[in-house]
Amino acid sequence: MERWTNPIKQRREKKQTSLPRQILCCAIAGLAATPAAHASQLSTLQAEIQNLSVQLDQLKAAQAQQAATQAKQAKQLAQPVAVAQAPGVELTPMKAEKLSTAAEYVRRGTMPHSFIVPGTDTSLSIGGFINFQGIYDPTENLGPKFAIGNLDPKGSNARAQSARTFHFQDKVSRLVVGSSTPSPYGNITTNFGLDFYGFVSGGDNNQALQNNSWGARIVTAYGTIGPFLVGMANSNFIDDPDSLESFDNAGPAGLPAARTPQIRYTMPLGKGGALSFALENPQTGYQDTRDNIEANTKTNPLPDLSVKYEREGDWGHFQVSGLARDLGFTDQNGARKTKFGAAALMGVTFNLPHSKDNFGGQIWYGALGRYLPDDFGANVASVLAIDNGTAANPTGAANIEIQPDAGAELFFQHWWTKKLRSNLGLGYNHQRLASFVPADPNNAVTTKTVHVNFIYRPVPTVDVGLEAMWGQKTFQASTGLGNQSAWRLEAGGIWHF
Q1: Which of the four pLDDT bands, split at 50, 70 and 90, describes residue 201?
Q2: Helix, strand or coil, per DSSP, at residue 276
Q3: Pair type for strands 107-108 and 123-137
Q4: Nearest in space to 488 (alpha carbons), one of 473, 466, 459
């Protein structure tokens, strides 16, 4: 018998039979597909990592290139930029030029208180001092310096007009510019000093009253190369180290002090020693029987020759120097006459052990003439005395004599504290005048001075203090004038820079 089946039931059974099979097939397919999916994800991750690595390498390369570019630009900015400039056209500095200028640094120079000029190997120093003095003269106004040799006789109009006077002055203030440049021949240096003690027509009391101006003058103007010095400097003959520290611009009577154009050669001799030779500008001063005094001759046959030996150490300073001069004069008949003149000087300073105190002095003798300016004592610019008669009765041939000077200076410095010190100085000078020189109150045969001061230094660049001075002048015996003296009291201050 044929079996009948229900179609609906038959389909349900068929569905029930195929579902597990499908699930199993899917599971098997899933298991088969899992390794393939993991491989695909790993491949994608590796691709992303590789891409990041490439980007990192590119970033590093870009940074390196940027750094190289910046370094190249900095090097270019540090170099001067050459710009073509049309004649007469002023160009505004480019940024690179400004940066290159700003890149220069000021460096310390080889000289004290100096700096290197940017772009060179030259050391430059700028210094000097401001000098201020308040002066009271109870006896007579002798000018900015205590020039006792210029003291007028008692009872004279000149003395009466300027007794008991007070004045301020700052004309010795000084500006000094120096330089030093190395060279194969030794350092090349320059020194230029300027103060305001210039010539005033009519004398110091004839200054401009509206603003009290003074005339500028050259104090030093010289250059050196190795051992050679050429130009205007302190005479090789004089001795500055062995002298009194004073507010007074003159100092002790007769103290040699001169500046002159010269050619000098200095040779070192052992530790602290030196020997120097100089040819110095000649200038012969004279006075005659026609009442000319402190006049200069036009006859200067040869330069003055000076020789100096000095030595310095912790113990102090020593100097000995000599001077040889060919002194000349041409009379009214055109006859030239010359006289050989010589002078010598010796000075010394001793530093006391375990102290800042020191003492010393100088002695001198000979035909010094202008090496002893009259501001410092007698009218010693008149190194020659000329016997040429009178204007009404001139002699046929002038007779000339040398008028030598002999003098000494002594000083002592004592430090009361680290900031307060005192100085005591004694000065003496004598000039042997020719017997035929006419009587003249301007002639000082002998001058003597005493200086004493107190100087306080509140800071390293400032000195202030008080100084008292006394001086005596001996006139020619033929004038009938006895010894006469003068006083001065001075308050001073020096500001160094």
Answers
A1: low
A2: strand
A3: unpaired
A4: 466
Residue 114: DSSP 8-state: E
User: Residue 150: helix, strand or coil by DSSP?
Assistant: helix
- 8 A C-beta contact, residue 304 and residue 277: no
Mean pLDDT of 371-382: 77
pLDDT at residue 11 is higher than 80: no
Read off the pTM. 0.76
Which two structure tokens, joined as six digits, stand for 104?
A: 């220069």
CB 405 within 8 A of CB 365: yes
321 and 331 in contact (C-beta within 8 Å)?
no
CB atoms within 10 A of CB 286: 25
- Which of these, 104, 110, 169, lies nearest to 136 by C-alpha position? 169
Structure confidence by residue, pLDDT tens digits, 110-131: 888 899 998 899 999 999 999 9
- Residues 6 or more apart whose CB falls under 8 angstroms from that of 120 comprise 181
Whether residue 178 has pLDDT greater than 90? yes
Rounded CA-CA distance 6/9 in Å is 5
Question: Which residue, among 202, 157, 167, 159, has the nearest Cα to 486 in the 3D structure?
Answer: 159
User: Which DSSP helix (H) or strand (E) runs through 141?
Assistant: none
Q: How far is CA 48 from CA 43, 51, 52, 62, 154, in A?
A: 9, 5, 6, 21, 117
Span 303-315, average pLDDT: 97
Tokens 């002090």, residue located: 257
CB environment 376-391: b (16+ within 10 A), e (fewer): bbbbbbbbbbbbbbee
In this predicted model, what pLDDT tens digit does every residue of 472-489 receive, in sequence order?
A: 999 999 999 989 999 999
In which residue are the tokens 């009178």 written? Answer: 390
